[in-house]
Amino acid sequence: MVSAERSMAVGKVYLVGAGPGDPELLTLKAVRAIGEADVVVYDRLVPSSILATIADGVLQINVGKQAAHHPVPQEEINEMLVRLARAGRTVVRLKGGDPFIFGRGSEEAAELDQAGIPYEVVPGITAAQGCAAAARMPLTHRGVASGVRYVTGHRKANEPLDLDWKSLADPDTTLVVYMGLANIAEIVRNLTAQGLPGTTPVLAVCQGTTAQESRICAPLEALPVALKDVSFSGPVLFIIGKVAGIALERSARSDAAICEAISVVA
Amino acid sequence: MVSAERSMAVGKVYLVGAGPGDPELLTLKAVRAIGEADVVVYDRLVPSSILATIADGVLQINVGKQAAHHPVPQEEINEMLVRLARAGRTVVRLKGGDPFIFGRGSEEAAELDQAGIPYEVVPGITAAQGCAAAARMPLTHRGVASGVRYVTGHRKANEPLDLDWKSLADPDTTLVVYMGLANIAEIVRNLTAQGLPGTTPVLAVCQGTTAQESRICAPLEALPVALKDVSFSGPVLFIIGKVAGIALERSARSDAAICEAISVVA
């Protein structure tokens, strides 16, 4: 068996972005990679509607964090990918959004590099894009937002949020905060302290682009209070900036309201 | 005829991101929209390999800028979309990248809103994501780049580049500059003047994710000189930050070099 394994051709790993949630937002390349896979290694941000597209007989390995479950540590995931590829498998490592935007995909790529495993990276629609399109809210707009930036609001245990607040408090740049729900009060406090107007509109989206999508809109200064009235189940994305005001205007004009609850409570 | 047109149901417009160039990076939703379309209105950033996927009999309208051709003004494009939809057509407005990131898609959405035309926005893989995945270069990486931002290096005629250089010169954020080739010397001068180290690695990519993709890597301070030695045909994307160093390391270890010409000329 050992010699048979040794003579076996090494497999390949695809680091694949599954997009924001809607299975139609998978790329053709992601679909092809999933179709070639012997094994799919996925985490909790990949919705079941996408897992349902995986063919019978393909091994599915859940390495995601779930309430009451400890996630598989990143180092173990890295090793698992190398081990599966060395056993000749074609592996899809399926991650929510884009593997190279807050996805730790680069850590997996580094491990595969080091081990000499062939791999390919398949980009995915990141949550900011999916949520913006669904809400008809641009991320940039001439004269309103000259650029866009993505940061994470997640922090390591017992460490402060290490963000350059002065730079982030720019009214002409759309600011997208991933994984910021737990620390939103601190985020709002720091942004307003650095001069971002408290009236700046914010769109908060949970499970964007899925049938379970829920949103609220609120001015920045009212956001922590507004969030107390909703129960989001899943990671929340915050899009902060004048573009969120465009979404609100469009919502007002449309039959299908963009915000299920527009909480302008300030 | 007039009364027949009046009784005709109004059509629908899809504002669709075609992605960075590789036709496999279209989303399933984009493919479906193109399949439903009677008319596809496209611009110069949509490669011919994607136009080739459009079915025979679908009207294709080129509104793009091309050398020696004047582009169709944005206002005319907006009106064209409204007119086609009012004539009962299903229209795909196909744009390079993502329609809501530097795509002026939001201006088209505003016009459709105003006219009461039903429309849907289909996000696309933006150039930064496509080029990063192809070069195996993350846009964020723990301990290296805590976030990413997209700006445009394009300016209106005779106006200075209106960017907050101090905020952009952040060594811990990946900076992606779209459409910056014409003004790259000014961009480099401003970033280094604000303290971004001249040794910061930069990846410059032209026609990323296509068979014609070409790249150079150079330290920030050497970039304007390095660019004189290459002839890029098409828009160039600059990815500035320590993540570009990761791409270089991976390139050095790989059989398939990530940079066709690594010009470290400083």
UniProtKB/TrEMBL annotation, chains A, B:
Descriptive protein name: uroporphyrinogen-III C-methyltransferase
Pathway info: Cofactor biosynthesis; adenosylcobalamin biosynthesis; precorrin-2 from uroporphyrinogen III: step 1/1; Porphyrin-containing compound metabolism; siroheme biosynthesis; precorrin-2 from uroporphyrinogen III: step 1/1
Enzyme Commission number: 2.1.1.107
An annotated GO BP: cobalamin biosynthetic process
CDD domains for this protein: SUMT
InterPro entries per record: 4pyrrol_Mease, 4pyrrol_Methylase_sf, 4pyrrole_Mease_sub1, 4pyrrole_Mease_sub2, CobA/CysG_C, Siro_Cobalamin_biosynth, Uropor_MeTrfase_CS
NCBIfam families, per database record: cobA_cysG_Cterm, PRK06136.1
